[in-house]
Design a protein that fits this description.
With about 260 residues, this protein is an alpha/beta fold. It is built from eight helices and nine strands. Helix 1 packs across helix 8, helix 2 packs across helix 3 and helix 5 runs parallel beside helix 7.
C-alpha cells in the first residue's frame, strides 16, 4: 500500500492497548512510514555519549525526568537529520566549556538551532511519513510539540478493560529496548527471547492486575486533557476493539482514507 502525501501520526492508548503492535503493522503495510521512538532516541544518545545524551543521563541519574525541551530538541533533530523538515539542523547540540564539569547546568548546552516557536516547514513527500512514539504524553507536552511539528493524525486506541487485563497478564518485555510481546498475539519468534537481540524477555512488575489498575487511573487523568487538545485541533480519530486483529483493519483503512 502506498501513501500519496505525508502522514505524521501519533498513537495514543492505555498501557497494554497494543500501540507497538499497531505501529509494527502499519510499517509493514505502508513502507513509506518510519517509526520514531523518543525512548529509543534517548537511549541511543545516552549510549553514544552525545552531548544531549550526556546531559539527559545526568538528569535521569539525579532522579529527575528529562525536560520536555530536551526531548523536543531530540525529536526535531531526528526529523531534520532524516530530511523530514525543510529547515536543517547542522549542529544542534554543542557542549559548552562547563558541560563536562556540570552536566546539569542550564548553560551546559549552546543550541544554535533551538526548536522554532512555529512549526518548521514539512516536506509533503509521502516518504517523509512517520509515527511518533512516546511523546507527547501530556497536554502541555502536546502544546510544545505543536510549535515544532505539524502532526496531522492522532489515533486514540481503546480496548475494554477485561480484554486489557487479560492481555497484560500474558505480556513479555525486552527491558533494554521496551519492545513488547504477547503469548496470545505478537509472539516472539523464539519463546522467551527478543526477536532482534536474542536477549531474554521479562515480565514487568507493574503488569500485575492491582498495579495496572493504579497505572490506568493515572493514565486516564493525564490522557483526558491530551485527547481534548487534539480533538480541538480536529485531528483526533478514535478506534476501539477487543483485539489488535480487530483494530488493525480499521486503522489501515483510516490511514488510506486520509493519506492514500
Amino acid at each position: 500500500m502506498k501513501l500519496s502525501r505525508a502522514a505524521r501520526i501519533i498513537l495514543v492508548g492505555a498501557p497494554g492497548v497494543g500501540k507497538g503492535t499497531q505501529t509494527k503493522r502499519l510499517l509493514e503495510r505502508f513502507p513509506q512510514l518510519s517509526a520514531i521512538s523518543s525512548g529509543d532516541l534517548l537511549r541511543e544518545n545516552v549510549r553514544a555519549r552525545t552531548p544531549l545524551g550526556i546531559k539527559a543521563e545526568a538528569v535521569m541519574k539525579s532522579g529527575s525526568l528529562v525536560p520536555d525541551t530536551l526531548m523536543l530538541r531530540l525529536i526535531h533533530h531526528e526529523l531534520s537529520t532524516r530530511g523530514f523538515l525543510s529547515r536543517p539542523l547542522a549542529s544542534p547540540f554543542l557542549l559548552s566549556s562547563t558541560s563536562m564539569s556540570d552536566p546539569l547546568s542550564a548553560t551546559s548546552f549552546v543550541d544554535p538551532y533551538p526548536p522554532p516557536t512555529t512549526p518548521s516547514p514539512h516536506s509533503s513527500s509521502p516518504t517523509t511519513s512517520f509515527i511518533l512514539d512516546g511523546f507527547p504524553r501530556t497536554a502541555p507536552q502536546a502544546t510544545r510539540l505543536d510549535s515544532t511539528i505539524d502532526i496531522n493524525l492522532v489515533v486514540n486506541i481503546t480496548t475494554p478493560l477485561p480484554a486489557l487485563l487479560a492481555r497484560i497478564q500474558t505480556r513479555w518485555v525486552h527491558a533494554p529496548s521496551g519492545r513488547t510481546y504477547n503469548e496470545s498475539f505478537n509472539k516472539p519468534r523464539t519463546p522467551g527471547l527478543d526477536d532482534l537481540t536474542g536477549e531474554p524477555l521479562v515480565r514487568r512488575d507493574d503488569d500485575k492486575a492491582e498495579t495496572y489498575m493504579e497505572r490506568l487511573k493515572t493514565f486516564a487523568d493525564i490522557n483526558g486533557p491530551l485527547l481534548n487538545h487534539y480533538r480541538q485541533k480536529g485531528i483526533l480519530w478514535d478506534v476501539e476493539g477487543d483485539t489488535s486483529d480487530e483494530i488493525t483493519p480499521k486503522l489501515v483503512d483510516e490511514v488510506l482514507r486520509r493519506f492514500g
